[in-house]
Amino acid sequence: ADHGIESTIVSVMPAEEPQLARTGAIPASAIAEVLGRPLAPASRHPSPGAKERHYRPRQEVRVLSEAKYRSCGNDPPAVAAKLWLAMPADPVAAARRFYQDVRALEHLPVRIIAVNELPPDAAWDALRDRLRRMAGPA
């Protein structure tokens, strides 16, 4: 639980390229560096926790662009109240707190959890994946 999110899973089968079965705490780039080649995307056998619907709070989750996120609640009565919960700027620290923060928000009397989209660099891949699945279709 030091990382907060689930582990990275790599499928290594005889006569197959190593495949990234699930993004996680260890970036795929770090594994590729050790292997000396990039990981192929998983082609079959979805890993636990890699299904389209994984952990999801009871509220709707929306991932918003920076502009949309900043303007949330500027159009009353669409938003009755705003609560800002800042995630750490470091992806490792953010991953460590991720589920704890989501569970804390889940216990609040809100209908929607709006999340600012995460930075595009690879260090945020695992968290971006978890958010995408939380915000995806039910």
TrEMBL record:
Domain of life: Bacteria
Signal sequence coordinates: none
InterPro entries cross-referenced by the UniProt entry: Sua5/YwlC_C, Sua5_C
A UniProt-annotated Pfam family: Sua5_C
Stretches assigned to the Threonylcarbamoyl-AMP synthase C-terminal domain: 28-136
Record's protein name: Threonylcarbamoyl-AMP synthase C-terminal domain-containing protein
Protein species of origin: Candidatus Amphirhobacter heronislandensis
